[in-house]
Structures
1.
Amino acid sequence: MAGKLYAVGVGPGDPELITIKAVKTIKNADCIACPKSHGEPGTAYKIAKEAVPDISSKELLLLEFPMRKTDLIDAHKKAAEQVIHFLSSGKKVVFLTLGDPEFYSTFYYVASIIKEQGYEIEIVSGITSFSATAARLELPLSLGDESVMITSGKFCEFEGTLVILKAGSKLKEIKEKAATYNKNVYMIENCGMPDEKVYYDLHSIPDEAGYFSLMIVR
């Protein structure tokens, strides 16, 4: 009998934000797959381990995804082959992702290859980084009939609320453009993590920050 692949979103950083369904799915898994960082399990695994300590008793499959986009196609194929090795023996594999698997997740590149081979896939949603950031700021993302736009590292002129993910390396450019509009700008770096930093106005936001930096403009 073939195994099944689960994508499990562990939320943005705070282990207490992992859903009950995510915890149950992790506990029932035979194998945990996750990206590795410097040879060790990445951030998603560390978050999951705090919420589900017995995850360390599961078989661990560390997947390598290089930062250069030109190398990613081969990396996705290799990762899919590694996951299929476990699925072909009937094992339940959980692929951990930060936030929610539906937003900028590496999972779907790998899953598309695996799905073509006829394996079953299930998605377990996680709390998104922008939902957690808005809650931390006690800020509504939208009210009434307001619209919300989500971008990746890009400022756009927009009438409603603008959410900018992956803003860290482009902050200087984003700040320059945002300054020309009469809107409030907020940012959180590493939301829910021990080294979280919160900024409540445009002038306090630095020109550079880490990868997990999210801006809200409204």
2.
Amino acid sequence: MIKTRGYAAHSGDQPLQPFNFERRTPGPGDVQIDILYCGVCHSDLHTARNEWNNTLFPSVPGHEIVGRVAAVGNAVEKFAVGDIVGVGCIIDSCQHCGSCAEGLEQYCENGFVGTYNGHSMGGGENTYGGYANNIVVRQEFVLKVPHTENLAAVAPLLCAGITTYSPLRHWKVGPGQKVGVVGLGGLGHLGVKIARAMGAEVVLITTSPAKVADGQRLGAEGAIISTDAEQMAAARGSLDFILNTVAAPHNLDALLALLKRDGTMTLVGAPSEPHPSPDVFSLIFKRRSLAGSLIGGIQETQEMLDFCAEHGIVSDIEMIPIQQINEAYERMLKGDVRYRFVIDMDSLQGE
């Protein structure tokens, strides 16, 4: 076993605190990784505070991991000691169902194993995530990091990046399309960058006029203030696709009205309480679609990393030491981050 230091929540109403635990000794197909950076996702907060009522305590969050390979099993062929690699939201799946066969491990029909708060395949032990100094992962779920600079800003791509890339790719966003991105947070700011890099005309949809200038800096060519009835009315039927990144319950009908005939709005934000049900007439009269999307498979995540490296896309981040994680959660709830916290795991050295 490998001794590991990290931070964990021990109940939903307690702050995260230092936590010592053990990882498995690498098997023949395993990769042992020294974690350099880990992004802070809203899902981390939901899980640490048991807001989805499914947390296995103690919980070590973190699934936006960039690190350096420290050891490999004797059957590992894809990676070598010293490689810079990434680990996202999934560390195992059944590998034999229809979805896994198509490279869609996130939809594994037997249930994928989450990087944290998941049961290992065939076992009952809790998985511990990236708020730690190391991790051991099967080589099939480790990703090559093609970026050579600003590795801390690459970390959020392992969740926020693939969460926005996958639906944009699946619904074939590209040149000649007008795409709305709802919300300019950890997900939305990457959605703007990636949709623009795909060649679409991007429109930011936000409740905050103060975010318009930043949306334009990131690549949005226009903006709609969703609380302004005149702007919303003027934009009706103007968008081919909407990527909705907001993780709080809100009225979907007003946004659906912005779509053209046959347009789709895809939800990627995961609120702790449901959205109000949309009016069916918002859908049937223009043959609009309301869809959802969950992260991405391993092959697509590698494709996303390569695409972002090619186009110079990384997350806008604020680096923090692990000792500030509880403060970061509170700031995240207030939207006080531009646009993703990333933990420098070197800060664990003093624990």
3.
Amino acid sequence: MSLKDQIAGDLDLFFDLDEMAEPHTLTIGGTEREISAIVDGDGGQRNSLKAPGGAYDGDLLFYAKTADLSGAVQNALIQWDGVPYRVGPVVEEDGISQVTLTAGQGGF
């Protein structure tokens, strides 16, 4: 078994609803799905949602399995638990995506 295979198996542990993750409803392109996600509510992380120089960069940062997020690409319009957001930066690595959402201004 390769290291990549071992890491892929470990993702289920991180995104287990009884361990670290929480259930959230994600609507992309009219398709609603339930995903397991880890919302980063750490105060230090909230500060990193501001780009260097204090420019605003986002409202919500979460982690999810990349496979659960098909269609959640930068600048896409989505709904997170029924609230409209625009997808900001998406960083993918080893099957995990870090997604920054910015509040939808004026609706869809």
4.
Amino acid sequence: MADVLVEQDPQLMTDQDLAAVLHVLDGIAVQGEGTSPRRRQSTEEWTLELHWQQRGPVSADTEAALPEALLRIREHYALQDRPAPVRLRVLDPDGAPLLRVDPADPGAD
């Protein structure tokens, strides 16, 4: 079972992008899989949303690794010359925010 479901809006994320995101997450020991987006976002200032599948908080190790993971995901998009996610948000299984990662100001919601 996946640790997180990664929202894959076809306007923002190709299958190649999803594979890159999943590879980055795998590098921090988080197994993910794609899922349909819960809401539409514009290509400007979009947020990569991850749905944490476990009850309870994200582990401290994972939380500490997410800012670097976001930077690696943004690098992938830069190499593809496509709009990258501005931030990453982790939601619990019910959709409530667990934490938010911004490249300049990582921290919890």
